[in-house]
Design a protein that fits this description.
The protein is mostly beta strands. Helices cover 0% and strands 58% of the residues. A hairpin with a 2-residue loop joins β12 and β13.
Length: 450
């Protein structure tokens, strides 16, 4: 069954809980698969959706066809009513992979990043790979006009990017991975792994023109270590992901105690120099930190899922939390959400799960609420909001308090087969949010929409 991207808006009142409900729903039709990876919003309420597609995809009256049936990238803009304003195709002779979209602080421009091989066309600008997969970055004005596009990370093998963020000075901070070596745009900065057979993580900073300012390798001894997410607050940078074995941050390192993956969150200054790290460790299976976000005062909200029967979570650099976090059914995944202050002190931790696999895919925060989306495989209870399972995996979106972590709303999008929530975004007025995902079911029920 093909993937069909769904695009949903929810109206939510912070005062009237019963007023919650889906306002509208849209989906991409197509002959192949299509998947959203990032959603953002400008300061006048327009939505920007960034993702991947194969073969053909249609949104409203606009149809795109991928080159040679391979995977290409789509970039779409919608007005606040969900009406498509434009739909762009980014692609070439090889495979292209979308990863991240982020606005600058005044919403005049946004940046996208992803991977490509062979020859790559972005709005008439052509890029070519040096080795295997390379990393591109492009800057657009809010009206969709391309400012520039560059091959910003390249080497003899594969380089990938998993995310970017924009600081208050307009600089771009990127996280990614490489094998053997990686050079950054212009060739001034190059990183070389001491263990050529092991993928390494990098963090890098660029100015608003895409010129690199610095790069650092986060050295590890296991290819399973993966920095997935980056954010900024007051020009301090925060990173998160999972690791196996040892991960070296330069002046500090972490090592897990078993042969499974554990999670981490760490902070640097504007030069990428280590400040602190906190671990989320499991007893017997893998843990995955998928993404973190920050509010206006620097608190860090982290989302992921865990398979272990129990977790040990750092409260500070020397103290672990005494809150018991236990899996509903060890070996299957449960959802976890944590809040740290800007100095790395744990504020709260919440876990939700069923007797089957439940995962979180995205998380977003405003000053008062935290929004998260993902999927669940059996009936699940979010603090009294009981979501029944309709078959396979169902998509969910939930809202919790940023101060307590207590869920105040949870809704689902469900069909008889597998359906997944992928991305989410909250309006600045904290009354509306957008979530997107993909479904394999022949039909999908979203409130009163099918």
């Amino acid at each position: 069954m093909k993937h069909i991207t769904l695009f949903i808006l929810l109206a939510i009142s912070s005062l009237l809980v019963n007023a919650q409900g889906w306002m509208w729903a849209k989906h991409f039709n197509g002959t192949g698969s299509n998947q959203p990876v990032s959603i953002s919003q400008d300061n006048v309420g327009n939505y920007y959706v960034y993702g991947n597609f194969k073969n053909q995809v249609t949104q409203d009256a606009i149809t795109l066809n991928s080159y040679n049936g391979s995977q290409d990238i789509f970039l779409a803009k919608y007005n606040p009513l969900g009406e498509v304003q434009w739909l762009k195709q980014i692609g070439g002779t090889g495979i292209e992979i979308a990863y991240s979209l982020s606005f600058n602080s005044d919403y005049s421009s946004f940046y996208i990043t992803g991977n490509f091989n062979n020859t790559f066309n972005i709005e008439g600008t052509y890029l070519n790979t040096i080795g295997g997969l390379d990393v591109f970055m492009a800057k657009f004005s809010a009206n969709g006009t391309l400012d520039w596009a560059k091959n910003v990370a390249y080497g003899t093998t594969n380089q990938t990017s998993s995310g970017i963020c924009i600081d208050t000075d307009g600089n771009i901070v990127m996280v990614g991975m490489f094998l053997n070596n990686v050079s950054f745009y212009g060739g001034v900065y190059t990183l070389t792994s001491q263990i050529p057979s092991v993928r390494q993580n990098f963090i890098a900073k660029f100015n608003s023109s895409g010129i690199p300012l610095w790069s650092k390798m986060i050295d590890g001894d296991n290819a399973a270590s993966y920095i997935r997410s980056v954010s900024t607050n007051n020009n301090e940078y925060y990173f998160s992901g999972q690791y196996m074995g040892t991960l070296d941050f330069g002046t500090s390192s972490i090592t897990n105690s078993n042969s499974n993956k554990d999670g981490f969150v760490y902070k640097t200054n504007t030069n990428g120099d280590f400040q602190w790290v906190r671990k989320i460790s499991g007893s017997n299976y893998d843990e995955y930190i998928i993404k973190h976000v920050q509010d206006g005062t620097g608190n860090v909200y982290t989302g992921g899922y865990f398979y272990s029967s129990s977790l040990v979570i750092d409260s500070t650099a020397t103290v672990t939390s005494n809150v018991a976090i236990n899996n509903h059914y060890s070996g299957n995944s449960d959802i976890i959400i944590l809040k740290y202050s800007s100095d790395g002190t744990l504020q709260w931790v919440k876990a939700y799960g069923s007797n089957k696999n439940d995962v979180i895919s995205d998380i977003y925060t405003t000053q008062n609420n935290v929004l998260f989306t993902g999927s669940y495989s059996d009936s699940i209870n979010f603090n009294g909001f009981n979501l029944l399972n309709s078959g396979g995996s169902d998509a969910f979106t939930a809202v919790c308090s940023s101060s307590t972590g207590i869920v105040s709303s949870a809704l689902k999008a469900a069909g008889p087969n597998n359906d997944y929530g992928k991305t989410c975004f909250y309006n600045s007025n904290e009354r509306n949010f957008v979530t997107s995902g993909e479904f394999f079911s022949t039909s999908l029920t979203i409130g009163s929409y099918t």
